[in-house]
Amino acid sequence: MLKEIIQSLMKDPEAAQRLKNGRFELAGISEVEQRALLDALEDTNRVSKAGELGAWDTVKAAAAL
Amino acid sequence: MGARIDIIDESLSHSLTEMGDRMEDLAESVAKEIRGGVQTYFALPHLYEQATACVDEKLRGSLPFARLTVLHYRAFGGRGPAIYRAAGAIELMILGADIVDDLQDKDNNLTAWSRMSPEIALNIALGLTLISGQMLLASEFPLERIHEAVQYMNTQSLTAINGQTADLLNDIQSEEDYLRMIKQKSAAFVVAACMIGTLLATGEWNSHVRDYAEELGIADQIKNDIRDLLDWERGDFRNRKKTLSTLYLLQYIAEEDQWIADYFEGRLRMEEIGHRREEFERAVERTGTFLYTSVRMRMHCYNYLRIVDKLNIDVQWKNRIIALAK
């Protein structure tokens, strides 16, 4: 179901905005999937830059060892 | 076995500093143990020199696995310097696996071991694996804990060998196959680093540590796979490796992008598609491959956080471990 939702989002770019505003129903996926999807959508680097996938890059960026 | 990891975190540095493990001292202490092990067991001058080149390269990195071992040892109440030898043993085990991985994948020309003959590199990898066991056996912990730690390190190495072989065969048909493979190939080493630190401190198995370490390892491997997807110079793409990203991509590519499926199924050669990189990048974006992979990676991060939260340790240490994924 997660895959189908992502396909919908890719075909309709405005759907992502509706999702962020709570006007796009996320039925059929778990709470963890919902949270991960919303967080991934908030990460503007996600689609265009493979090297920046969120949490792990934050860790990397903070590296000071 | 694909065991490179990007877990390097300032908070880890701070937490260890508070327990008397200054980062420079930790790296120096672990390096001393590693060099001592190599010097003791590689008697032939050429072998010693070449192995030292490999070790030097390892020591120029941040030793994330050693740090994970020390962090868990301290977090679970371990005191004193004995942990450095165990942490060095973990790093040597992983260095041996990395050398074998590069020999097999032939996708990394930048390392010291890729510049020497593969026969010598193989002997060094075998030797480092054995030295890592010797170092752990010679560490200053109660014998029962050493016995269990060595047994666990061997078990995890064998798990990684199974996963690496599955990866070499590239017989990945589903996401379940892929996740099983990376649990073995990659996460097994993260689990070993965290569990051995915990075990040496407490003498007990901690299933929470095992479970969250596995989530950490899976998340990191998913990230590496998506990064490698667009890096056509690296072996993963050249070797048509099936990953979470490529499985998803192949499921949703459009009719005009069928050449991508043809390439991954071996019907097209690299030379025939080399000029289509931008088309490939557009297909990756159009299908939402990054978004899907990012979501899946995050799910494993959240599972990690959820399990860490169950730990019954000082909140300061818990926060340090949580910070690894924030």
From TrEMBL, chain A:
Q: Where in the cell is it found?
A: Secreted
Q: Which UniProt keywords apply?
A: Competence, Lipoprotein, Pheromone, Prenylation, Secreted
This protein's superkingdom? Bacteria
Database matches in InterPro entries: Competence_ComX_Bacillus
Read off the Pfam families from this record.
ComX (PF05952)
What is the annotated quaternary arrangement, including any partners? Interacts directly with the sensor histidine kinase ComP and stimulates its activity.
Protein name, as recorded: ComX pheromone
Q: Which organism is it from?
A: Paenibacillus forsythiae
TrEMBL record, chain B:
Q: Which InterPro entries match?
A: ComQ (IPR033965), Isoprenoid_synthase_dom_sf (IPR008949), Polyprenyl_synt (IPR000092)
| Keyword terms, alphabetized | Transferase
Q: Which CDD domains match?
A: Trans_IPPS
- Is Phosphoprotein given among the entry's keywords? no
Q: Which Pfam families match?
A: polyprenyl_synt
Homology family = Belongs to the FPP/GGPP synthase family.
This one is known as Competence protein ComQ
Query: Which organism does this sequence originate in?
Result: Paenibacillus forsythiae
The upper taxonomy is: Bacteria, Bacillati, Bacillota, Bacilli, Bacillales
